[in-house]
Write a structure and sequence with these properties.
The chain is 38% helix and 18% strand. The chain has 337 residues and is α+β, with helices and mostly antiparallel strands. Strands 1-4-5-9-8-7-6 form a 7-stranded mixed sheet, with helices on both faces. A two-stranded antiparallel sheet has the order 2-3.
């Protein structure tokens, strides 16, 4: 029995598969197994009563030992089969997929480089603004009809979601004084009806330049330089009078629709032109709110529509695609690095 016990342990150690363990079980506990035959071939007639009793006890212990060892081997084999394969976390992933930059991000990054080359700072602002910086300081008092031009999202605490990044003009003047050159890219919110060229959340890039003897000629020169750089070609523009309380005089700078080449489409509402850049000379009242002397300094401001600029640059026919969250849309543009 001691020899059978030792040999059983060796055989189970060598067994590496379910089939190997089953073969060991049959070899020892099957109908013709070593342990089964040990009992069948025993000559009980030649044993005394005490010897038969001792043989029965030792045989039962051997059989229990064999059953327990075989069951333990089967359990170990099952656990090994179910265990996940070991993974070396220092190895690179198999699917190293790069994300893609959003077209608005691409345009904003390119514009920031262009304006930095012209000496402009890049400043940030707040999505939630006060009435003062969004309206009052821009020469739009509470009873001014211009407030009706922008459908504002008002919050219960009296604050609002900024309707334009122009809200940063006076903040920049208060902090930096004059002269100053700065742009303020960011997200804006207006409660507008959504169509192929309008969204209730969009992106703007506000710009401000204040110095001595700034004129409309400076404004036009900077805008032409920027548009030629961003589109990598000359674009057809037109300048027409426009009303904005924070500039005087005010202009609308439009570009010929690059999607239809001025022929007329749903994006430009069949007009052939896209309103891209409201601009003008900074109103003296705005300079005063920013604690800058309007008798000594003048300047220009503009609000460049990043969302519409991206549509023109990448021939995107519907503004709703930009906020769709569709990965197939973003994958058409360069991958992030």
């Amino acid at each position: 029995m001691q020899e059978i016990r030792a040999q059983l342990s060796e055989d189970l150690t060598a067994a590496t598969t379910d089939q190997d363990i089953e073969a060991v079980r049959v070899r020892y506990l099957g109908r013709k197994g070593a342990i089964t035959l040990l009992r069948k071939n025993a000559d009980f007639s030649a044993m005394s009563g005490a010897e038969r009793k001792r043989f029965g006890q030792q045989f039962n212990e051997l059989k229990r030992f064999a059953e327990q060892q075989i069951a333990a081997a089967q359990a170990r084999q099952t656990s090994t089969a179910l265990a996940p394969p070991s993974i070396d976390m220092t190895l690179p992933g198999l699917n190293n997929h790069l994300g893609h930059l959003h077209p608005i991000s691409l345009v904003q990054m390119e514009l920031e480089e262009i304006f930095q080359s012209l000496g402009f700072m890049i400043l940030d602002g707040y999505h939630v603004e006060t009435d003062f910086y969004n309206f009052e300081s821009l020469n739009i008092p509470r009873d001014h009809p211009a407030r009706d031009m922008q459908d504002t999202y008002w919050l219960k605490n009296g604050l609002l979601l900024r309707t334009h990044t122009s809200a940063n003009q006076v903040r920049a003047l208060e902090h930096y004084g004059a002269p100053v050159r700065a742009i303020f890219p960011g997200r804006c919110f207006r409660n507008e009806a959504i169509d192929p060229s309008h969204e209730n959340t969009f992106y703007q890039l506000e710009g401000l330049m204040v110095d001595r003897e700034i004129s409309v000629a400076n404004l036009i020169a900077v805008m032409r330089t920027v548009l030629a750089a961003i589109f990598h070609r000359e674009v057809t523009v037109r300048l027409r009078p426009g009303y904005f309380p924070f500039v005087e005089p005010g202009f609308e700078l439009d570009i010929q629709c690059l999607i239809c080449a001025g022929e007329g489409c749903s994006t430009c509402k069949k007009s052939g032109w896209i309103e891209l850049l409201p601009c003008g000379l900074v109103h003296p009242r705005v300079l005063e709110f920013g604690q800058v002397d309007p008798d000594r300094y003048s300047g220009f401001a503009f609000g460049l529509g990043l969302t519409r600029l991206a549509m023109m640059k990448y021939n995107i026919p519907d503004i709703r695609l930009l906020n769709s969250g569709d990965l197939r849309f973003c994958e058409q543009f360069p991958a992030a690095v």
